[in-house]
Amino acid sequence: QVQLVESGGGLVQPGGSLRLSCAASGSIFSGAVMGWYRQAPGKQRELVASITDGRMPMTIYADSVKGRFTISRDNAKNTVDLQMNSLKSEDTAVYYCNRVPVGPFGNYWGQGTQVTVSS
User: Fold this and answer.
1) In which region does residue 86 sit, left (phi positive, over 0), alpha (psi from -120 to 50) or beta (all else)?
2) Measuring CA to CA, which residue among 3, 2, 17 is closest to residue 111?
3) What is the mean pLDDT of each run of 10 residues along the chain (119 residues)?
4) Angle at the Cα of 36 (from 34 to 42), degrees rounded to 5?
5) Please, what is the end-to-end C-alpha distance for the chain in angstroms?
C-alpha cells in the first residue's frame, strides 16, 4: 500500500521552531530521493528541501529556507523529518512529503500538515 502521513505542524510565532515528520510506505521511500514540499494559499506547490538515500545523504534546499530548515531521514523507520527554525510568516503553508521528482507518486499525496506562523 502506498502511503504518506505527515505530522508535526501547528501554530508558531515568528522566530519559533517546528519539527515535521513524514512516515512513508516502503514502496515510496526505499532508495528514493525524498523531499518536503509546501503549498501556500493561492500558490503552487513548491519543493523546499530534498535528501538522497545512501550512507552519506546529500541535501538541497530552496533559497527561501536555506540556513533555517534541515531535512533528515531514518531509513530503518521509513521516515523523513524537517526541522524548521527561525520561522517567518511566509513559511505559512501546508507541508507535504513525497519523492523527488514525484513521478507516478504524484497520485499519492498525503493529507499534509498545516504550518501557520503568526503572532
Assistant:
1) left
2) 3
3) 94 98 91 97 96 96 98 96 98 97 90 97
4) 140
5) 40
